[in-house]
Amino acid sequence: MKDKLFSYIDNAEALAVELETEMCKRPAVAPESGGEGELDKALWLESWLKERGFPFERIDIKDERAKGGVRPNLIVDVHAACSGEYKITSLHSRPEGTHVHAACSGEYKITSLHSRPEGTHVHAACSGVGSGRSEHKSPGVLWIMCHLDVVPPGEMSLWDNDPWTVLRKNDGPLGPRLIGRGVEDNQQGLTSSLIAAMAFKQTGLVPGFQVKLLFCADEECGSTYGMAALLKECPGLFNKDDFVLIPDGGDIRGETIQISEKNLLWLEFSTKGKQAHGSRPDLGANAHLAGAELAVRLHSELDTVFNDRDPLFEPDYSTFQPTKKTSNIPNINTIPGDDYFCMDMRILPRYPIQLVLKEIDRIKAEVETKHKVTISYKAAQQVESQATPEDSPLVSMLSAAVKEIYGTSTRPVGVGGATVGSFLRKKGIHCVVWSRIDDTAHQPNEYTLITNILGDAKVIALLMLGTSKNPV
Question: Which of 188, 247, 329, 394 is the most exposed place for a label (fewest CB within 10 A)?
Answer without folding.
Answer: 329
